[in-house]
Amino acid sequence: MTLSPPPFLPGGTVYGTLLNFKHELALWAARAAEPPYKGIPQAPVLFIKTANTFSPQGAAISLPASVPEVDVGASMGLVIGNFEDFWPNPSADRPQKAINMEATAMLPRVVGCVLLNDLSIPHDSYYRPPVKFKCLDGFLGIGPRCVPLAEVGDVNALKLEVRVNGTLRQTVDFSGLVRDAAMLLADVGEFMTLRPGDVLMLGSDCLPDGTRPRARAGDLIEISAPGFDPLVNTLVGEPT
Amino acid sequence: MKRARIAWAGAIHDAIEADGQLELLTPAFRGRRLSFDEVVWLPPLAPMPAHRPRTILALGLNYADHARELAFKTPEEPLVFVKGEASLTGHRALTVRPAGVAYMHYECELAVVIGKTAKKVKKADAHGFIAGYTVANDYAIRDYLENWYRPNLRVKNRDTCTPIGPWLVYAADIPDPMNLALRTTVNGKLTQSGHTRDMIFDVPFLIEYFSSFMTLQPGDLILTGTPDGVVDCQPGDVIVTEIEGIGALVNTIALQG
């Protein structure tokens, strides 16, 4: 018999990106002009999914009794690699073209991509950091595998499908990003280092009405994309 | 007990403070004493386990006087943001001021280091979950403030912009973390003076609050906010953030590049 490898877990900090889909940014245009925002964001707006949120593939995610439902933020994470991941193979730079980026010493090297389920307590203000909405125990479903970049094809052409209890609820099209993978890496790299093991999420999109798919205890959420084993999470009520 | 983590002679070592020197705990050098000047000081924190990165929580506007200084009303619940470990640097480090910015300021903060797994901890029990304390200087570059998830990471999560140290002081040596004086000097001139008793949300409250929805692990950090008295820092300025009984964290501002 063969043992399957343990499910993927990030080795470093997981960063999320706010408003990185043109569709959602357009819906925000009117509100963004008003206080407290006073204009659309200029630089990438990031948040952190802390380590207590990590739910490996197969783990049930517990919702506190005070949280009747959650927003599903289906996303793709770029996994930053070690120097050793690219050495000594001289052709190792080639897969970086999957994120439309000529590899240079200046930009962090992406080794692969992982499906992520960025759960949030629904909130309609983006003014203050979302720690109490996004950093609850278990609130980041993590895909079973970091898929090597060479297998991914073009990251910016990926489409994710979100199903809740088997019903298709959303298709996320990464051709609609405000900043594509390469631009996001470059603009984030302007002010902070992404280290080996860190993960940078490309963002999640909203539905046509501006909301995100909702799920509640008892629901099974599946996020899938061509070439990726599906990410499956079950929500359960908090044990009393 | 005061613990440090240092680089010396090609390797990283744990050390304790002994008679104004560093005493190495590394078995090969156990007992050897070094002066503060002959080592590189690292953040006084043990590495985290694989696949469990450090959670670094930081408070904004957690002293009423500082909230007034920034023209905010006192918050009704903690204003919290999260930082990545890549922003940390040690005692006597260089912190980079980006070219062309108008306002970069220090923030002297009591940093709490978690000592054991904390989930749904009550205020009254909070002290038992603290390993110790250190000093953090949570620099902000206000030019980059935007009103989205404010304070945004471009302001608060920059490389080199979170000096921390020099020591991890064991909790047993600090009977009351809410009774400590804080002060900051810039090139020797006192610019910030405050007291932890003036925190809006005190350390036991914060541990109860965070652990009510997020499980904290040993090595996680809570930076508890800064009192008023922040001023602009220019390249070459030497900033000393000091907390009574915890230590004096020295940092020098450097030009970019």
What does the main sheet of chain A amount to? 8 strands, mixed
CATH topology of the largest domain in chain B: Fumarylacetoacetate hydrolase, domain 2
Give average pLDDT of chain A, whole number: 90
Q: Runs of chain A with pLDDT <50, length 5+?
A: none
How big is the Rg of chain B? 18 Å
Number of domains of chain A: 1
The backbone outline of chain A, from C-alpha atoms, is globular
Number of domains of chain B: 2
Distance between the termini of chain B: 38 Å
CATH homology superfamily of the largest domain in chain B: Fumarylacetoacetase-like, C-terminal domain
CATH class of chain A: Alpha Beta
Describe the structure.
The complex is a heterodimer of chains A (240) and B (257). Chain A has 240 residues and is mainly beta. Chain A has a single domain (14-237), classed as Fumarylacetoacetate hydrolase, domain 2 (Alpha-Beta Complex), CATH 3.90.850.10. Helices cover 12% and strands 30% of the residues of chain A. Chain A has 4 helices and 15 strands. Chain A starts with 13 loop residues before the first strand and ends with a strand. The mean pLDDT of chain A is 90. With 257 residues, chain B is mainly β. In chain B, the strands form 3 sheets. In chain B, strands 1, 2, 3, 4, 5, 6, 7, 8, 11, 12, 14 and 17 form a 12-stranded mixed sheet that branches. In chain B, strands 9-19-18-15-16 form a 5-stranded mixed sheet, with no helix packed on it. In chain B, strands 10-13 form a two-stranded antiparallel sheet. The mean pLDDT of chain B is 96. Classes of the chains: A mainly beta (240), B mainly beta (257). The interface between A and B is large, with 44 and 35 residues.
